[in-house]
Amino acid sequence: MADLVSMPKLGFDMAEGILVRWVKKEGEAVDKGELLAEIETDKATLELESPHSGVVRQFLVDEGAVVAVNKAIAVVGDKDETIDIEALIGAEAMEEEAEAAPTEAISSEPASAQSAVAASQPPSSGPAAEANGKLPEGVRATPLARRIAEDKGIDLRAISGSGPKGRVVKKDVEGHAAGGGTAGPVLAGLPSLQMPELGTAPADKRVPLTKLRSAIARRMTQSRQDVPHFYVTHEYAMERVLDVRKQVNALLQSSAEKLSVNDFVIKAAALALRQFPNLNAALDGDAVIQFGRVNIGVAVAVDNGLLVVVCKDADRKPLRQISSEVRAMADRARSGSMHPDDIQGSTFSISNMGMFDVAHFVAIINPPEAAILALGSAREVPVVRNGQVVPGQRMQATISIDHRVSDGAEGAQYLQALGQYLENPAALLL
């Protein structure tokens, strides 16, 4: 029986995507879950897995086409069956229209981190958002290529596109930048020390918001306006975590396998949530949905924004698996080649700024989640031990909680439970 493959909806308000490349060919066999195509949103290039098994009978859109969400893009069926494509598309369209609902309620499944943090903006009215991806100057470019070019201060007219119909794609912009283009700021790096130049001050510069930055602004404004936040901070002794991490990493052969402090916190936070299901939750009208799975969203800094990758079932995975999965997803997020599953399904989020030597900060909740944990640096500070001032390693963590779902006492108790794991990290290795 023939089935349609449609453009997936990968964000709360994603309206369209670009079919960048077909990985399979017409007439080629494909298994369910096998890579079928690459699609591009305003934020990243994602790999589209086939939802059906069979033979790719026909592509319904060309590479480089801008395709609306839920529109059919390919037909998968048996090798020799007769398929009425028009009837198949018409039947599915009627079925979708009949099942469409005016509003989308929160289901019992975990909410999407992508919709909470980095959902796509509707197409803007500016020239850079024309449906065919063509700028007024005649340059064809994908949304992601335009965003990267804006961030790096590169004129797209100076780049030869390698995509379909000469479209400028991500790799073209990055290749141009590597060959001498003006590079934009790197969020993960520290600014170099530069002496100010005397003389005339530079002119003001107006920098338009990227779509990712605009989406973050909109979603975070909504969160602060609609969700009554409250905050609880706790300080943890980190000597034991650092000692265990050092011992474990000494046994690992590859530097790519080394554990980070963040890996320990992800596992500890997930285990503590088992005791406090009210924080692994989302508000749904007059009820609270307490999620059965503990899926930890981890904030990752990307150019001009933030994306959340999701470590699913973090309470049931060993530290090495958590470390490997989060590192791989973070690398894909920074390179703009995420899998759709990387950014969907979080139930609780962690934002770690420890690598920037930050002592303490508070984070904004990713709706519809009920809480987010903000981590500072593990710092060497003076502590009082047995009446003596001695050096110690301390880390501050602040949890932001939706006051409609929980109260201060529960937040404080959760942080205490988290401390039981961080200050006795052997339990995280079991």
List the helices and strands and how they pair.
Layout: E1 3-6, E2 16-22, E3 29-30, E4 35-40, E5 45-49, E6 54-59, E7 66-68, E8 72-77, H1 85-99, H2 113-117, H3 143-152, H4 170-178, H5 211-226, E9 229-237, H6 239-251, H7 261-275, E10 281-284, E11 287-290, E12 296-302, E13 305-311, H8 319-335, E14 348-352, E15 371-385, E16 388-402, H9 408-422
Parallel strand pairs: 12-14, 14-15
Antiparallel strand pairs: 1-8, 2-4, 2-7, 3-6, 4-5, 6-8, 9-16, 10-11, 12-13, 15-16
Helix pairs in contact: 3-4, 7-8, 7-9
The count of DSSP E runs of length 2 or more, i.e. the number of strands, is 16
Q: What is the spatial order of strands in the main beta sheet?
A: 9-16-15-14-12-13
Helical content stands at 25-40%
CATH architecture of the largest domain: 2-Layer Sandwich
Provide an overview of this structure:
By secondary structure, this protein is an alpha+beta fold. The protein has two domains: 3-99, OB fold (Dihydrolipoamide Acetyltransferase, E2P); 221-429, Chloramphenicol acetyltransferase-like domain (Chloramphenicol Acetyltransferase). It contains nine helices and 16 strands. It has helices spanning 85-99, 113-117, 143-152, 170-178, 211-226, 239-251, 261-275, 319-335, 408-422, and strands spanning 3-6, 16-22, 29-30, 35-40, 45-49, 54-59, 66-68, 72-77, 229-237, 281-284, 287-290, 296-302, 305-311, 348-352, 371-385, 388-402. It has a six-stranded mixed beta sheet, with helices on both faces. A hairpin with a 4-residue loop joins strand 4 (35-40) and strand 5 (45-49). Helix 7 packs across helix 8 and helix 7 (261-275) crosses helix 9. The longest helix has 17 residues, at 319-335. The two termini are 47 Å apart.
